[in-house]
From TrEMBL:
Any one GO molecular function term: peptide chain release factor N(5)-glutamine methyltransferase activity
Domain called Release factor glutamine methyltransferase N-terminal: residue spans: 8-75
Binding site for S-adenosyl-L-methionine: 141, 187
InterPro entries tied to this protein: DNA_methylase_N6_adenine_CS (IPR002052), HemK-like (IPR004556), N5-glutamine_MTase (IPR050320), PrmC_N (IPR040758), RF_methyltr_PrmC (IPR019874), SAM-dependent_MTases_sf (IPR029063), Small_mtfrase_dom (IPR007848)
Source organism, top-level taxon: Bacteria
Record GO biological process: methylation
Protein name according to UniProt: Release factor glutamine methyltransferase
List of residues binding substrate: 187-190
Keywords, alphabetical: Methyltransferase, S-adenosyl-L-methionine, Transferase
Name of encoding gene: prmC
Length: 278
């Protein structure tokens, strides 16, 4: 088949399967398989695709039609201008989370130590290290499989001179954490269990449940992290969270009750509450 025939077959299969962005995904998968970009595909639409590429492409289209997220097929997702490896063991980095990283960057100074709780792919921590000069980072997660992905990302994204600025630790929240930090940041699982069931199949059935499910009211991990973080923050330290659009008040209250001062809620570009810090 030619590029064009492949693309058209891919579009049709994804549209038939009810995939939301069928044509976009068909193109992105073809580009990923053939190592080309959009302009090449347009300019060389009548060029034949190698049999290997065709087979791989149609395989991916079949999997995408079963609602497997595109990023789990290509194995990557861009975040903060960096390309992160992902697989089924980590939450796919979301653009919304860039707001959290930007808020932390405003407060990050040379020599600070940063803890990223529930680090997943490591996207938050590694972006912070990439865009700040002299801070050190610890990424914590309960999942050993997720930490493998984070380690891999650290290897690709930090050059040899900076590799020892980051460490990862398998721990149930703060259980095995030692020492104090200037900044603790977290994008914990925060979706109420009943709401997880209503998510699109790509997320509900293919992203790790443990990265999404914040238990009955969605606030379980905020409560635990807020309670335990104080022991690991220096006295002027700061705690940053990503939150769901309707959790700004609840999480601010939890922080104030625990003694955090200057608690603020930050909105995302859609005008929704997205970050709380104090
Ligand atoms: N920290 C990672 C991210 O923001 C993973 C978050 C999670 O698994 N809840 O993408």
């Amino acid at each position: 088949m030619t590029y064009r025939e492949c693309y058209e077959k891919g579009c049709l299969a994804l549209q038939t399967a009810g995939i939301e962005e069928a044509t976009l995904d068909a193109r992105l998968l073809l580009e990923a398989v053939c190592g080309t970009n959009r302009n090449d595909l347009l300019a060389h639409g009548e060029q034949l695709v190698t049999p290997e590429a065709e087979e791989k492409y149609l395989g991916w289209i079949g999997q995408r039609a079963e609602h497997i997220p595109l990023q789990q097929l290509t194995g990557e997702q861009d975040f903060m201008g960096l390309t992160f490896a992902v697989n089924e063991h980590v939450l796919i980095p979301r653009q919304d989370t860039e707001i959290l990283v930007e808020e932390v960057l405003k407060q990050l100074h040379d020599g600070m130590r940063v803890l990223d709780m529930c680090t997943g792919s490591g996207c938050i921590l590694l972006s912070l290290l990439h865009y700040s000069n002299a801070c050190e980072g610890l990424g914590v997660d309960l999942s050993a499989d997720a930490l493998e992905v984070a380690e891999q990302n650290a290897e690709t994204l930090l050059d040899a001179a900076n590799a020892d600025r980051v460490h990862f630790l398998q721990s149930d929240l703060f259980d095995k954490v030692e020492g104090k930090f200037e900044i603790i940041v977290s994008n914990p699982p925060y979706i109420a269990s009943a709401e997880v069931e209503k998510l699109m199949p790509e997320v509900r059935d293919h992203e790790p449940r443990m990265a999404l499910d914040g238990t009955e009211d969605g606030l379980h991990f905020y409560r635990r992290i807020i309670e335990e973080a104080g022991k690991h923050l220096v006295s002027s330290g700061m705690l940053f969270f990503e939150i769901g659009y309707d959790q700004g008040q609840a999480v601010s209250e939890l922080m104030r009750t625990e003694g955090y001062r200057e608690v603020q809620v930050v909105q995302d570009y859609a005008g929704l509450d997205r970050v709380v810090f104090g």
